[in-house]
Each structure stands twice: as structure tokens, then as C-alpha cells.
Design goal:
Length: 139
């Protein structure tokens, strides 16, 4: 089992409070999301992610050895990470769903792929890559 360091272990004395708070929030969200990902396995889907409750996340936090998420921001981060984990294994790494676009047409390219049913990337000449992930709009 990997251990994620808390802010006190990473930052020196005098580090601004908001930096430490954000670090610990990301640490907690990562631990809880990964615990839930392991629990759901191949059953993980967008509908399941959207139905997660505070109680579900608190139970996963206890199993992961972190405090339960108490803010909406942390709970949303957990759901976002789960959507990422769900999509990660389904990315088309062959480049088939990658669009090369010029800077001025990036907005048009994004509009074009907004209705995609699979992850799609748009890459501009400078290497800026935008990854579009399809999400369940039924919240």
C-alpha cells in the first residue's frame, strides 16, 4: 500500500496555510477515489459515481486511513478522479481520436468534438493538448 505524505511532511515551516490545506485536500481525494476505484472494479460507471453519498465516501476514507471528506470541493474532486480513472483505461492511445489544430481553430475543434462519445484530444502546434472526457449529463 502506498502512503501519500501529508502537507507537514512535504512543506517546510512557514508554508502558507492555503497551500497546506490544498495539498491535504488533494491527498484525501486521491486516497478516497483510489479506494473506491478498487472497491468497484469493473462495475464502476458514471451513474454509480454520480450516486456516491457522503456515507460511501466516509467509509472509503476510513478504509484508506484518511479523515472523511467534509467539503463539497473534496467530494467533487473524488468524483472527478473517479471519472478520470474510469476513462483512463478506455483512452484510444493510437491517436485515432486526436485532432491536430491550429491555434486559431482550437475553439472550433473543441466545439466539433463536444458531442463525442469517447475521449478525444485536440493538440495545437505548440503541443497544448486538451483532453475532452464524455460525462454523464444526468446528475
Amino acid at each position: 500500500m502506498a502512503t501519500l505524505s501529508d502537507a507537514r511532511s512535504v512543506y517546510g515551516k512557514g508554508t502558507p496555510g492555503p497551500t497546506c490545506k490544498r495539498h491535504n485536500q488533494i491527498r484525501k481525494a486521491t486516497a478516497v477515489a483510489f479506494e473506491l476505484f478498487g472497491e468497484f472494479g469493473t462495475d464502476l460507471n458514471l451513474s454509480l459515481i454520480n450516486r456516491l453519498t457522503q456515507a460511501d465516501m466516509a467509509a472509503a476514507a476510513a478504509r484508506a486511513g484518511v479523515n472523511p471528506p467534509t467539503t463539497v470541493d473534496t467530494r467533487n474532486a473524488i468524483k472527478l478522479l473517479l471519472r478520470f480513472y474510469l476513462t483512463l483505461g478506455r483512452l484510444d492511445l493510437s491517436g485515432q481520436n486526436t485532432m491536430q489544430v491550429a491555434d486559431q481553430s482550437l475553439q472550433e475543434a473543441l466545439a466539433e468534438v463536444l458531442g463525442a462519445d469517447r475521449p478525444t484530444t485536440a493538440v495545437n502546434p505548440l503541443g497544448l493538448t486538451v483532453l475532452l472526457l464524455p460525462i454523464d449529463r444526468q446528475l
